[in-house]
């Protein structure tokens, strides 16, 4: 539940801020006729993201056991790569995000409504598709899907609410610190997803060391227990973990967090919607 909540909150707020910046700019420049294309692009991006989530779930259920292991392992690796790229992208471009979106709106406005809709679509689709893939991969690491689903819904709802309040200047949040902290949390979750992907490929026989276990606590903790589910969904804990999984998990955390927390030449701060 915690991990899906963090994923939905982080990605949802990014998308909400992007939409807020686009809407605020066209309102400020007195071009309200562009609001309909913007919301149309946003709607299509959301539908596509939901469709991807449904496709991933349906496909995994229709595959054979080995096919499901391959599918789950591959999507886990892709999700880790996308999330890693995303947190560094946001850190690098946060300061110039508003100006970049304003430039895209000005360029698209010269072409027409379809270009405006496309600009909004691609801005939101990136967040939505990343969320769908990462949430699907994270769901595979937890025992019960119900708490994870609740966390996802609550996270998205809170993200939309925060985005609305920030747009209306009802609240002020230090977005730089918010995205730094949630970025760290997502890196930790991604390390667990990476470990899960390695486990799936070990079961396929494509990676060695499946029987070389760093620990096996299955006699004391069941896979569906509250503690196991909580740790699995946050740090990627498994009752049986191989040395290769532990090594990959540790190496990823040390390398990625070291680079992510390295001070930038100029501190990045996400600007407000207006």
Largest sheet: spatial strand order: 1-2
Give unreliable regions as ranges. 267-271
Task: List how many beta strands DSSP finds.
Answer: 2
Cα-atom radius of gyration? 20 Å
Structural description of this entry:
- This protein is mainly alpha-helical.
- It has one domain.
- It has a two-stranded antiparallel sheet with strand order 1-2.
- Helix 1 packs antiparallel against helix 5, helix 1 crosses helix 7 and helix 2 packs parallel to helix 5.
- The longest helix has 30 residues.
- About 2% of the residues have low confidence.
Question: Short summary of the structure?
Answer:
The chain has nine helices and two strands; from the N terminus they run αααααααβαβα. The protein is an all-alpha fold. A two-stranded antiparallel ribbon has the order 1-2.
Secondary structure: elements and pairs:
Blueprint (H helix, E strand, L loop, with lengths): L1 H27 L6 H28 L2 H29 L3 H15 L1 H27 L5 H23 L7 H30 L8 E4 L9 H10 L4 E3 H18 L14
Antiparallel strand pairs: 1-2
Helix pairs in contact: 1-4, 1-5, 1-6, 1-7, 2-3, 2-5, 3-5, 3-7, 4-5, 7-8, 7-9
């Amino acid at each position: 539940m915690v991990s899906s909540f963090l994923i939905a909150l982080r990605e949802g707020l990014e998308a909400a801020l992007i939409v807020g910046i686009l809407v605020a700019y066209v309102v400020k420049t007195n071009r309200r006729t562009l609001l309909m294309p913007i919301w149309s692009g946003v709607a299509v991006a959301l539908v596509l993201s939901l469709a991807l989530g449904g496709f991933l779930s349906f496909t995994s259920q229709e595959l054979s056991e080995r096919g499901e292991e391959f599918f789950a392992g591959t999507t886990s690796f892709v999700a880790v790569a996308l999330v890693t790229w995303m947190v560094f992208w946001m850190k690098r471009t946060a300061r110039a995000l508003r100006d970049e979106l304003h430039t895209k709106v000005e360029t698209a406005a010269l072409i027409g409504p379809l270009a405006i809709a496309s600009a909004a679509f691609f801005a939101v689709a990136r967040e939505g598709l990343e969320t769908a893939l990462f949430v699907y991969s994270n769901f595979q690491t937890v025992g019960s899907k119900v708490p994870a689903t609740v966390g996802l819904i609550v996270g998205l709802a809170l993200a939309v609410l925060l985005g609305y309040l920030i747009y209306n200047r009802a609240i002020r949040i230090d977005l730089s610190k918010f995205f730094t902290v949630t970025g760290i949390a997502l890196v930790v979750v991604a390390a667990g997803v990476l470990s899960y992907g390695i486990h799936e490929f070990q079961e396929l026989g494509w990676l060695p060391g499946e029987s070389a276990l760093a620990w096996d606590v299955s006699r004391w903790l069941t896979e569906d227990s509250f503690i196991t589910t909580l740790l699995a969904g946050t740090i990627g804990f498994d009752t049986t973990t191989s040395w290769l999984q532990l090594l990959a998990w540790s190496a990823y955390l040390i390398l990625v967090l070291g680079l992510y927390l390295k001070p930038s030449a100029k501190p990045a701060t996400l600007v407000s919607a207006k």
